[in-house]
Amino acid sequence: MSASAPAPAPAAAALQAVGITKRFGADTVVDGVSLEVPTGSTVCILGPSGAGKTTFLRCLNGLEKMDSGAVLLDGELLAYEHRGDHLRELRPSAAARQRRAIGMVFQSFNLFPHLSVRDNVMVGPTKVLGQPKGEVGPRAMDLLTRVGLGDKADRYPLELSGGQQQRVAIARALAMQPKVVLFDEPTSALDPELVNEVLDVMRDLAQSGMTMIVVTHEIGFAREVADTVVFMDRGRVAESGSTRDVLDNPASERTRAFFSKVI
Ligand SMILES: Nc1ncnc2c1ncn2[C@@H]1O[C@H](COP(=O)(O)OP(=O)(O)O)[C@@H](O)[C@H]1O
Ligand SMILES: [Mg+2]
């Protein structure tokens, strides 16, 4: 072995957001937000209502067109390509193809009510990715079993509780075999007694090595699962760092004031 063998490269961030800015009219609702999410890590984003958390997630996965900034997934720029010394926008179909690697779980589940639970999980891989049903079906069943719903495959979403619907939504996101999953307040629409069954699934997912960004008000979950906590306020990152530093020893007055109300 050569003594001058290069040191192994540090693990690349799965997702990098650089200076994301989004305006609605005169309002800058996301203002230069940067974030690095290492592969296999979980970042929790906390912050008051209206801070721009949802808009930031929507910029990451292209549901919202940002005014400036860039998103890189495994080092690859999303939605643009370098042409000489400037950037050119990719065609929408090419950008959409890249973004399939970013899964999203919404506060309001967003399942297709007319499709069975199994078909909700299968529809992305079969219709969007063109994968054969024979291959996707068993994978969908594995995912439903993993979220504790193997016995509900033939039910319809509205026959399930909110917690069960949200677990189907997680299975559906995973069926696309994403590199990163974004969660936007996944338990905020649930009755309190249903919150934990969803957080349990998310905790397992984090422990299995999935890369996750979770917007949540569940401080206990953040404390237990997050590697990094980001506190957003008025469109900006007011504070970010290790979970312990931010939750137990917040540096900014704004973060302290927020936590004194929610913890
Ligand atoms: N489509 C939109 N058009 C205009 N304003 C919007 C739109 N979406 C969000 N906003 C505004 O952007 C700000 C941030 O909203 P949001 O990202 O939903 O915050 P959070 O998720 O932290 O509660 C709010 O003031 C909201 O009213
Ligand atoms: Mg929101």
Strands, helices and their partners?
Elements lengths: L12 E12 L2 E12 L3 E5 L6 H8 L7 E6 L2 E2 L2 E4 L2 E4 L2 H8 L2 E4 L11 H12 L4 H14 L15 H14 L4 E5 L7 H16 L3 E5 L3 H7 L2 E6 L2 E7 H6 L4 H10 L1
Parallel strand pairs: 3-10, 3-11, 8-9, 9-10
Antiparallel strand pairs: 1-2, 1-4, 4-5, 6-7, 11-12
Helix pairs in contact: 3-4, 3-5, 4-5, 5-6
Structure notes:
Helix 3 (117-128) crosses helix 4, helix 4 (133-146) crosses helix 5 and helix 5 runs parallel beside helix 6 (192-207). This protein is an alpha/beta fold and 263 residues long. The termini are far apart. Helices cover 36% and strands 27% of the residues. Strands 8-9-10-3-11-12 form a six-stranded mixed β-sheet, with helices on both faces. It has a four-stranded antiparallel β-sheet with strand order 2-1-4-5, with helices on one face. The protein has helices at residues 53-60, 92-99, 117-128, 133-146, 162-175, 192-207, 219-225, 243-248, 253-262, and strands at 13-24, 27-38, 42-46, 68-73, 76-77, 80-83, 86-89, 102-105, 180-184, 211-215, 228-233, 236-242.
Mean pLDDT: 93
Oligomer: single chain
Poorly predicted parts: none
Provide the spatial order of strands within the biggest beta sheet.
8-9-10-3-11-12
Shape: globular
Question: SSE order, as H and E?
Answer: EEEHEEEEHEHHHEHEHEEHH
The molecules bound to the chains, other than polymers, are: adenosine-5'-diphosphate, magnesium ion
> End-to-end span in angstroms?
53 Å
Class of secondary structure makeup: alpha/beta
How many helices? The count is 9
Helix content: 25-40%
Q: Assess the beta-strand content as a share of residues.
A: 25-35%
Biggest sheet architecture: 6 strands, mixed
Total beta strand runs: 12
- Alpha carbon gyration radius: 19 Å
